[in-house]
């Protein structure tokens, strides 16, 4: 590839993959719906499961934009969202009038005691979002609205039925989306009743034809026995859809972003694509967005061929033994995988973008250099760990002391270490203090075994045979753990951090 | 009562006493530990006459200390200096010197055993034609069938394949790729026997290679060099085979005074056959078990060795044995471990334990052959040899071969059938893809 | 008490000394004795007993070793003795000790004798390292 095109493509990658929030301004060229997500968007599917970064908030925001809905309906017609006219959010990450914020939920919670009263909170939220002229107080705070719903159960039902019938006659849908439920309260004891009641509402609302609830939830919420312990829960959960990003989906997302780069860069990449696989991209009429040929979205070897044109064939300089270092197409996702073998699109795109920002040697003939890809993976890993720590602060407390250990870790080693530093007690104290109002491990009541369970659920560790614990590179590197093997490296100058060097925040 | 000293303790004990008695620089640069053929220890010191005189006390101390080795003590000549030897270079610069490690100290070791040395003599030279070895610890895992299948698929993709049956003690590959009437008159054993008396005539190599008719309508071709030549009419066996077999393993002295090792001779056979046939790729069917034949192939001749593992305790144990041997010699192990790849053989069609196999394979490599790097070191140095469990290009990450009934008791006539050929394509798909990647330049 | 190994070494050592001083006839003699003792040392290791007669036809000593060498170990050492070089002893004889320097017509084979003696001594040295001879 000539130098000019290399430079163009490098800049294009950087420009096409910025880390921006989804919403009405989000570039449509970057909206790619992998097959598993198509089901997630379909009206009849209520529960959508996705790990952090899989797209829960993305779809919540994107579905909320009419233009984007139009684009999706044309380019991915199997989603069946043509008839969706209204989308509103019942709970999410932003501060909106549509739904109560966490503190308000907290105050509403304090007014409740029974389960059905929790459900009323959500009915209040839903009613607030459907248009209706009625006795429902438009003004006033959430407390008033909640009181009204509690005291007028029949009216609530009539309102909902009328609205539903009306929309249904017009053959339309109204999506009400729920996201970020783990932020509905500050600890699991409080989240659980809210989540459970919402699930029950979701089950109830399956009988409506036009009002369609969609709950975007994390896997750990669905694994929580207390949340899913209600009659016929299995009916709801059996039909859950999982937001999955396979290797082919990630690369399809990348390629689609690239073919839609503005101006000359988009053209350069589209030419490269045509040249490499002998197929052309289609263009959407209304928005002028390029979409990928179907085969390119599914065929790994075709994708690999195209990616090779950008990153070279091997993860090292070409030589007779270069294949031993791996191939960029597989190396990249493999090194970003967590224990559930999942990669988030955000990590993936970050890694590629950072790789494009790194310098390339004079003689290298591709836009991406393998050392750049390695840097990209490191950066994406760090970012992923920060995300983890944000969502689950206890992870830092639990894993940072493990710096002194080497992977794979024997179960006994890590349990002994945790017992020695008394991490379970420390976490329990935090719980009691209520000062640190952040989420604690779900299974803390099972002590160290519970911590292992929770880490496993988060995909941060996996259990191998013979009680060995594996921690994938993406997390191992961030927490500074060593690597265990059979052959000690000589002249290993890296200092070994001892237990005594570790300071614990809460003593 | 003092613990009786056993074979396994000897090297450690010797290392300990040398570390104690010798200054670092002498131990590192001027000392070679020899284990003679009776398992006794001899210490060689690179001292000339003057130095020997100067260091006489030190020499006495070492001689005394060696007495602790009990039956492994040589007695009088336990320590020899360079000045005591005619040609000291032969010993201090011996190509068989290994690096033994004790507590982070590296010590030179020379093992004077009669066989088995080839497990630790890695290849040093580059060559251009890729050579792939197929090895299994236990027999009966479908290794030869795999070699035949891969040869077939390669020829189909246009490659010129040269296949060696190195399983001299139980030959069989030839009958999979050649019908009985086509098997060559001469085989590898014939070449080795004639070569040992310099009696190899020009035509011999050509008479050893036969073309497989399976590749008749393909762009590529398959040439087979069998273990045994088919001499007699009718049954096509060589009645002298056993007699020849017993004579081929000795080291042979050459004109220039060098001694040629068995694996060197095998390598020479491969090189000369390559010159004669000019293939695109060479496949070697190795002998199962811990024999010099396999040692030479895996460690010295091949560029990549596929290790066939079945999910049984004996299989795992066997590889542990082999790997543990390599583990003791880190410098050599470093070269060898970079050329290995696991093949998960004989996967039963239903309910196979995929994840546990990966875990077990990972454990085998990680516990014995991967590097240990202490906490906090995040370097991505290419020389470091450590892999996370799920990394596909890692040697431990298995390539799967499904077991299918049609593959058992395989022979040429079964092979020569389009249904079979279709099945072969799907069963060996994963391995074939890997082999193809290796051959891409 | 014969110690063929040590005897071989001292003959070789002295022969070298003479050779360096260009005293080739006696050096040649001693190289012959060195080779003789060397082969006898090896014959002894096969379990057979070397007799005195052999020295008269040094060149025939090697076949004797070949006959006696049955085991893997002795075959190994035998293999290292260069047969071709050993044939040079065909022109060597103990009776040459009676002759005047200018009459030892076979001195032209000195280099070949040296080569064989060297080969034998190297094999013995290997045996020493290996622990066969101590």
Query: H/E series of chain C, N to C?
Result: HHHHHH
Helix content of chain A: 40-55%
| Main sheet: strands, sense, barrel of chain C | none
Strand elements of chain A, count: 13
CATH domain class name of chain C: Mainly Alpha
CATH architecture of the largest domain in chain A: 3-Layer(aba) Sandwich
Rg from Cα of chain A: 25 Å
- SSE class of chain C: mainly alpha
Total count of domains of chain A: 3
Oligomeric assembly: heterotrimer
> What is the average of the pLDDT values of chain A?
87
Description:
The complex is a heterotrimer of chains A (507), B (441) and C (134). With 507 residues, chain A is of the alpha/beta class. Chain A has 3 domains: 35-242, 3-Layer(aba) Sandwich (Rossmann fold), CATH 3.40.50; 247-389, no CATH class; 392-501, no CATH class. In chain A, 50% of the residues lie in helices and 9% in strands. Chain A contains 23 helices and 13 strands. In chain A, the strands form 4 sheets. A 5-stranded parallel beta sheet of chain A has the order 2-3-4-1-5, sandwiched between helices. In chain A, strands 9-11-10 form a 3-stranded antiparallel beta sheet. Chain A has a two-stranded antiparallel ribbon with strand order 6-7. In chain A, β10 (462-464) and β11 (468-470) form a beta hairpin. Chain A is flat and about 75 Å long. Chain B folds into 2 domains: 7-113, GMP Synthetase, Chain A, domain 3, CATH 3.30.300; 119-371 and 387-439, P-loop containing nucleotide triphosphate hydrolases (Rossmann fold), CATH 3.40.50. Chain B has helices spanning 7-21, 24-29, 49-54, 56-66, 88-92, 143-156, 173-177, 188-196, 202-208, 241-245, 262-277, 292-301, 313-327, 330-337, 354-368, 412-415, 418-427, 429-439; strands at residues 31-35, 41-45, 79-81, 98-102, 105-111, 131-136, 160-165, 210-211, 221-225, 252-253, 259-260, 281-285, 304-309, 340-347, 371-372, 399-402. In chain B, the strands form 3 sheets. Chain B has an 8-stranded mixed beta sheet with strand order 8-9-7-12-6-13-14-16, with helices on both faces. In chain B, β1 and β2 form a beta hairpin. The termini of chain B are far apart. Chain C has a single domain (4-130), classed as Four Helix Bundle (Hemerythrin (Met), subunit A), CATH 1.20.120. Chain C has 6 helices and no strands. Chain C has helices spanning 4-20, 24-45, 61-68, 72-80, 83-86, 110-130. The longest helix of chain C is centred in the N-terminal third of the chain and has 22 residues, at 24-45. Chain C is globular and about 45 Å long. Chains in contact: A-B, B-C. Chains A and B meet through α16, α23, β12 and β13 of A and α14, α15 and β15 of B. β13 (487-488) of chain A pairs parallel with β15 of chain B, so a sheet runs across the interface.
